[in-house]
Amino acid sequence: MDFIDFDFASAEHIATATALWNAACGPELSIAEATMHYNTRPNTGGVQAGWFASMAGRAAGFVLASALPGEPSVMSPNAGWIDALAVTPELQRTFVGCGLLRRAEAWLRDQGCRYAIPGGSIRPFAAGVPVESRAESFFARCGYVPRPRGGRSWDMAADVSTYFSRYGGRTLPGEPWAAPARPGDEDALLTYLRREFPGRWRYEAEEFLADGGAITDFVLLWTPGGVEGSCQLTFEDSIRPMDRFFPARLPRPWGQLGSIGISERHRGKGWGGLLLDTGLCYLRDRGVAGCVIDWTGLLDFYGKFGFRPYREYAMLVKTLADD
Questions:
Q1: pTM for the whole thing?
Q2: First CA to last CA distance, the chain
């Protein structure tokens, strides 16, 4: 078996990796080449590498790994990600997957990482290891264990085409109000995130806007003093690929909601529900039917708005040996 460096500028490599992913993961977890391209774009302060396994001149699998040493408020320099790992079906349960994983782990150690995390990277292929992929046992054999702060996460889903607002758009003078963001609201959004969520959410919004993402993909919670909450949405025409959320089982058009949060000093007042309700109405009014709220453990909260568990992820980590 030979290893070939993944050339992120190569259309052929992007196409080959996409085909390998789709063959390995099946139709419900399939992605488009545009998503592979998006997930291998450079990130500010980040590094990424990848390799193909080649057998008899044919690609047998690939692996991607990344770290974010330039943004310690987002991810500790001690940790990195196994972004994606896929092996062609006829060679699964052989040495190919282990060989690719070891190569990625060695690269992470060279970046100074002591821990490897499958999934959940800055441009994630998945939040963790999809339980339906049956790959959790493979990672367990390779030394991966559930994360101490929660070994499971979920995507939730609902058909929002008939969603009925709990709030009806009514607010009283002096109360907060939520509305889709408009061009010119970029600074207000980023000022809020830098104050309240200076880690990953701030970073992701900065990267999203720098990529050319639309400010209208956000809903903002306003008070007379400014923005006190935000909610990001994804539509089928968003720059952030919709198929990252694997909506194949849901009715089209598809949409996604999250991240969502409000200022710390205003939590417990019901403002989060107002922000969520406005986001769901916005999705509905844009014609969305099947909607995913991804990567959450708040099943009871979102369940009150009609969402049910849709996909489960194993959230794993491995301590990398010094050698």
A1: 0.94
A2: 22
